[in-house]
Automatic annotation (TrEMBL), chain A:
It comes from the Bacteria. Keywords: Oxidoreductase. InterPro entries: Ald_DH/histidinol_DH, Ald_DH_N, Aldehyde_DH_dom. Residues 34-241 form the Aldehyde dehydrogenase domain. This is Aldehyde dehydrogenase family protein. One of its GO terms (molecular function) is oxidoreductase activity.
Automatic annotation (TrEMBL), chain B:
Its EC number is 4.1.2.4. It catalyses: 2-deoxy-D-ribose 5-phosphate = D-glyceraldehyde 3-phosphate + acetaldehyde. Pathway: Carbohydrate degradation; 2-deoxy-D-ribose 1-phosphate degradation; D-glyceraldehyde 3-phosphate and acetaldehyde from 2-deoxy-alpha-D-ribose 1-phosphate: step 2/2. PANTHER family: DEOXYRIBOSE-PHOSPHATE ALDOLASE. Coiled coil: none annotated. GO terms for biological process: carbohydrate catabolic process; deoxyribonucleotide catabolic process. GO terms for molecular function: deoxyribose-phosphate aldolase activity. GO terms for cellular component: cytoplasm. This is Deoxyribose-phosphate aldolase. It comes from the Bacteria. Belongs to the DeoC/FbaB aldolase family. DeoC type 2 subfamily. Keywords: Lyase, Schiff base.
Amino acid sequence: MSERVAVRKTYKLFIGGKFPRSESGRSYLVQDSNVSLASRKDARDAVVAARAAVKGWAGATAYNRGQILYRVAEMLEGRRDQFVGLGIPADEVDTAIDRWVWYAGWADKLPQVYGGANPVAGPYFNLSTPEPTGVVAVVAPESPALLGLVSVVAPAIVTGSTVVVAASPSAPLAAVTLAEVLATSDLPGGVVNLLTGRITETVPTLAAHLDVNAIDLAGVVDTDLAADLEGRAAENLKRVLRPLPADHDWAGDPGLARMTALLETKTVWHPKGV
Amino acid sequence: MTATTTSARSDLSELGRSETALRTFLHGLPGVDQVGAEQRAAQLGTRSIKTTAKAEAIDLAIRMVDLTTLEGADTPGKVRALAAKALRPDPADPTCPHVGAVCVYPAMVPHVAEVLRGSAVHLASVATAFPSGQAPLDVKLADTRAAVAAGADEIDMVINRGAFLAGRYTEVYDEIVATKEACGDAHLKVILETGELATYDNVRRASWLGMLAGGDFIKTSTGKVPVAATLPVTLVMLEAVRDFRAATGRQVGVKPAGGIKNTKDAIKYLVLVNETVGADWLSPDWFRFGASSLLNDLLMQRTKLTTGIYSGPDYFTLD
């Protein structure tokens, strides 16, 4: 009897809840695997998918979004060994799981902490509430491959925005595997879209795209590229989160900044008394 | 050759006089190879149109759009805004061509006419108890005359599908002839409502019937039934207008309507036209798109080509 041949996985993109190959048909060899090499058209398709998902995701209750993020943590816990098998240190996987739980908890608390009633000199209730900004493009940090990705995606989606994330080009396997976790966590298709391949190919398209509302340059190392991307983003006044220093401690306390940077504030004046 | 053509012409003009002759002719048309038509349409849909050819195609498609709003909720303000958009689809870019026509309900025609007066944009109106066509002939003709009197220079009529499917071809034929007469100088587009005709053979017969009765255009759908324009249906209709011109010398236009939502779809149709009937039909005079949301996608793609930056729906009007 012949020996069984193991089934090898093709690592594909994650767009609109599906796992398509790159529209260009290209792939590249990294971490001993074939991974899709996304083109600018894949970036465009991902933005279309992300835009389509905004209404449902931003419109879902904060409680529901929190439940789904918690579900992601549950699914990730179940696949812990798979990530360890991909070379992610066990304590990084644990921190990543805990980070989902941490952000899940913020879903229905952030509006209380970050919004509120404003005292105004007139007969009005004046209330400010944070609202999601819309479609966010994210450049995930080169490393840590899993924790870095989770730490930039979770704060964007927890408040109701949707993301198109460019995965670490040198370590995309954890990212694509995380996409499989997301796809099985009741997260609606299009809320997170993942592009693998060269940052220089897909991200300039995202930075210039008029239908993208914010861009997080967390993983951009090259300062010239970062400046170029900021310039492109200026066209439609995107919010820009600038690159972090290379020695940023991803395992430390994430703080609220990454969530609050991607919010807009809606203020309502409601007349009181008659 | 000339003799045959002449005799064919006179034969064809006599057809409407007798139910038997008309039926014999329509049922004598060769059947459509369903698998072949679908495969050919799908194959032509895979053509890759890029860069300068794409830019040309987008501008042509914009010129071919019949910018349509056919809602119970249409208001004078809404149709005026739509007409203004028809004249200048992209206010930020003066090189952007105007659309082919604006298509509205008869009651809205006067409001659109005010805006379009003096421009090259045509004013189309649906008539004849659109979309069902289930009204007495007098009512349908009055509907048509009212639209023309209000300023419409193109009339989109619906055929009597009930009569067509029941095989009463002369009834359908006579209605088209009567409507054509009521149109006066206005162009007549005959809506076959292919989604209700069930087979490609019926589409071919209805196409011929519409052309024999004097239609200037044949149009796929009202956009009010679940199945609207498809590529294979349009292929069958394009073959019909090609054969009709070969037989009679008269050229008839084609208008797919409903369900054409993006630039990629529109370009597939243009490829289909070019490959089936040739460049003679690649003009807004002979080919139109009945659409509403298509225009914004065309404009977004056009902006992408001219600026290199992907645009978004936030930058174009909602209509």
